[in-house]
Design a protein that fits this description.
mainly beta, 4-stranded antiparallel sheet, Thrombin, subunit H, 30 strands, about 300 residues, 1 helix
Length: about 300
């Protein structure tokens, strides 16, 4: 009896240890079916069968899925919180998701209720209680109640969308980019050829074909002397972003220090501490110290 009770106690302890771990339901791809489903990353087993042509990560309790060209949202059990009836959709942010129907965009809540009318030509996801809306060929901003809090007067660029981060949004007025506050006041003057949303306390800006970074007061904290590296906008991953000068590529940190010398013919963004680079005819991987590593983990 004692051995039985001890074994039962051990089993319960192990069982509790397994189930007390945080379950993370993530998308997976079934090669045989050529479809996506969801699995429990702790138990490494299927949680929702592969039946979607697209499956996104869960965000605020729901996941965006697509089947036969229609989008909707499911909960962790796999039940449809929002029917797959939309032509497109963005992830849920601030408890609202942008959806597209018959060429127009609006917003729904997690139950699928339309809370902001589907009437805009384009929208962005909510960020800091603001979503950009595009109508009559100009961008403006609404709040979560659907009120137009910043007038639609800002220009369009197919490569860069306006977004609030830390109380400032990148916007284009006439031919130049700058930054505004959440009530539409100019925070950083319109003088740049391009401006990206803030990442923390700095934002990438371009002028006369050269890139650098400004702080929230508009001070150019990293000189505008770099070219676009790898045909992508400057984005910090693992604390570094690729940059180039005279077709030589390397990496800088958020203070502008050239952490990895500009010696390469090609660089990519870091991912999980590793980036691919090319030097001459040889391609290989490096870590964030610039050290060569055998392969990507």
């Amino acid at each position: 009896m004692k051995r039985y009770l001890l074994l039962l106690s051990l089993l319960l302890t192990v069982s509790h240890g397994v189930w007390s771990q945080k379950q993370v339901i993530i998308p997976y791809y079934d090669m045989k079916k050529d479809l996506y489903g969801y699995k429990d990353s702790v138990l490494n087993m299927a949680a929702i069968p592969a039946k979607y042509t697209f499956a996104d990560r869960y965000c605020q309790g729901v996941a965006r899925v697509e089947l036969n060209g229609k989008y909707g949202f499911i909960v962790f059990s796999g039940e449809e919180a929002v029917p797959l009836m939309y032509d497109d959709a963005l992830n849920m942010t601030d408890s609202l998701a942008a959806v597209k129907l018959n060429s127009k965009w609006g917003f729904i809540d997690r139950t699928g209720k339309v809370v902001i009318p589907i009437k805009y030509d384009m929208v962005t996801a909510f960020s800091e209680n603001r979503a950009a809306i595009f109508k009559d060929n100009y961008w403006g901003f609404i709040d979560r109640n659907g009120r137009e809090v910043i007038e639609c007067i800002f220009g369009y660029d197919e490569n860069v969308f306006p977004k609030f981060n830390g109380g400032l949004a990148n916007v284009k007025f006439r031919d130049y980019w700058g930054y505004i506050t959440s009530v539409g006041k100019i925070a950083i003057e319109f003088k740049y050829d391009c401006a990206l949303p803030f990442e923390g306390n700095i934002a990438a800006v371009q002028k006369d074909s050269k890139w650098g970074f400004v702080d929230r007061k508009g001070n150019e904290v990293i000189p505008l002397k770099y070219d676009i590296a790898g045909n992508s906008f400057p984005v910090f991953k693992d604390g570094l972003t690729p940059v180039s000068v005279d077709n030589r590529y390397g990496y800088i940190d958020r203070k502008g220090k050239e952490v990895i010398p500009l010696i390469y013919d090609y660089t990519s963004n870091f991912e999980k501490g590793v980036a691919s680079v090319r030097l001459g005819s040889e391609s290989f991987y490096i870590n964030t110290k610039g050290e060569r590593v055998d392969k990507k983990p």
